[in-house]
Amino acid sequence: MITPKSILDMVDYWLNHPVNGKYGSDFGAPLYDLLMVPLDARVADSFLIKMKKDLPILSELSSDQLALYSQSEGFETVRIYLRIMDLNIDLNQVADKLSKSVTGETYDINAS
Predict the structure, then answer these.
(1) Residue 4 neighbours by CB distance under 10 Å
(2) Number of domains within the chain
């Protein structure tokens, strides 16, 4: 049986996987395509279409239950939220968490 919690778990899993993160599949959230574009870009529809393609159960939700909205903070900052049922997810925080989880060696290209 699919419960609201299982849907939220699916969305959490999807948000934490970049596009093409699985071999042979374009499954994953295009967060940076959404967040790293000019503020007047129209990308919300393509984000939701990709989300519904990867997680078909979301096609059953109404536009009141699944939506993206933004909130301006200051001159050049916009926070983007994903609304699923009664939960609002800050996509900026998800992207920050993902960027901090990337680890590896760093190199100084100017070193001699």
Answers:
(1) 12
(2) 1
